[in-house]
Structures are given as C-alpha cells and as structure tokens.
Design goal:
single chain; Jelly Rolls; 7-stranded antiparallel β-sheet; about 10% helix; 10-stranded mixed β-sheet; mainly beta
Length: about 260
C-alpha cells in the first residue's frame, strides 16, 4: 500500500479512539506504561442495552407472515407456500442511531440468505408494492453457505462496499478502492459456523466495521459524503430465493449519538 494510503488508514482508525479518550471513556487515572499492550476488555457489555426481549415482537415491526418469536429468538422463515419476490425486513422501532455498536447472535439454515441492515431507511418496493418493509442502507451480509458472510453490502444502494477480508475506501467518482487485505477468502469463509454465531458491528462517522466470532471481516471508510447515510434504522432480513430460516437472539445496542 502506498505510504499516503497507510497514513490515511491509520488516521481514520485512530480518530474514533482519540475522540473516545477526549470524552473520558478511558479508565480514570489510567497512565500508559511502556510495557502496556492491547488487552481483551474485562467486560464487553458496558453501555449495551437489550433491544429484543426474547419473548415478543414488542419494539419491532415486520410482516407476521415471515417473522415470529420462538424459543428466545427472533425468527424469519420463508416456506414453499410463502416464497418472496423481494426482500423484506423486521425493523427495530426504537430510533435511528448514527454512531453505535450492535451485538447479536444469529443462526441460519444452509441455504438461507439474510443480513443486518443499519443506518437504513424504508423505501417503496416496486416489485412487491404491498411490501411495507423494504429497506435501503448498509448491511452486514449473512448467508448459510458462507459465500457473503461479513461483506458490507448497501441494500438497494451502492451494492458491494467491501468484500470480507478487505479494508476499502468509498468515493463518489469510482468503485470502492481496496486499501488493504487482512484475510484470505478461504480463511474468511471458515469463520461462521452452522450453529450460533456472534456479530459485532461498529459504526463511527464514516468508519464501518464488521466482526464475526471475534474475527474482523470487513472495514469500510465511506468518503462518499453525497450518498453515505449518517444515521438510520436497524432491521434484519429474509431474502428472495428458496425456503430458508434465520434466527437472531441477544440483540444489544450501544448508542453514542
């Protein structure tokens, strides 16, 4: 990577950290020592609030044909009798966060296709006009075959912003530029399991990070100010295609603004 690109990347990644320090988010009285090294946090849940009660759809809205609550999970299912012609979402009704961290667990059938939308808006659906739950915005892509899991895909927008294993910069006048790679496709495909998986999404200004099972999947630096969403709604998806089932649980949100 050219030196100027490396410097730019360091600045984009460090600015949110420095901003956090300026707002007093570091431990009081902490003084860096020469021997200090990064550590796993003692508690990863400070500031996180559950936004799904595990029992009802209270606080969420979607088409009940496809969404229900079962055994503590938010379940999206497409059956042979309810095949879709366009994607549909169940959406959190609690706000439109800008900067935040979102953590949850998901499990998806082998042929399933889903995703977690954020900083999104509800849009008309030309294919299925009766669908009141179509969304446009950033998406952490998820699928049972693990072909796309971890990508940053802008639903109904600029499409693939980063493929897993990439750090990219998005501008208005050209396709997203790869600044760096941090994992091979083979390594990325092995991160998600057939069982429950943990997702951690971080959105800070124009920096978007997707982490699955503790592994970095994609980083987007979105410098396309004319088209990037600054804030928006959160929702999870069932996708057109064959019958599928996806489950979400332990959905927690930490909103900064």
């Amino acid at each position: 990577m050219p030196l100027h690109a490396r410097r730019a990347l360091v600045c984009f990644v460090l600015l949110p950290v420095l901003a956090g320090a300026a707002h007093g988010q570091l431990a009081p009285g902490w003084i860096p020592q020469q021997s200090d090294r990064p550590q796993w946090p003692a508690s990863e849940e400070s500031g996180f609030v559950s936004i799904f009660d595990g029992q009802t759809l209270e606080g969420w809205e979607g088409d009940p044909t496809y969404w229900r609550v079962e055994e503590g999970a938010l379940v999206g299912e497409v059956t042979p009798e309810t095949l879709l012609r366009s994607n549909t979402f169940v959406m959190w009704q609690g706000g439109e966060p800008a900067d935040f961290e979102l953590k949850l667990e998901y499990r998806i059938s082998a042929g399933g296709n889903s995703g977690i939308n954020y900083r999104s808006v509800v849009v008309p659906d030309d294919v299925t006009p009766a669908n009141r739950y179509a969304m446009r915005g950033y998406q952490c892509d998820l699928d049972g075959a693990n072909h796309y899991t971890g990508n940053n895909y802008e639903e109904k927008g600029r499409l693939f912003l980063a493929v897993r294993g990439q750090v990219t910069r998005v501008t208005r006048l050209q396709p997203p530029l790869i600044l760096s790679t941090h994992a091979t496709e083979e390594a990325s495909q092995s991160v998600a399991t057939p069982g429950w998986n943990e997702v951690h999404i971080i959105a800070r200004g124009n920096l978007l990070i997707h982490i699955i099972n503790g592994r970095l999947m994609s980083v987007v630096i979105d410098d396309d100010a004319a088209h990037r969403p600054e804030r928006g709604r959160i929702g999870v998806q069932v996708h057109v295609g064959p019958p599928m089932k996806v489950e979400y649980r332990r959905i927690r949100l930490n909103v900064q603004r």
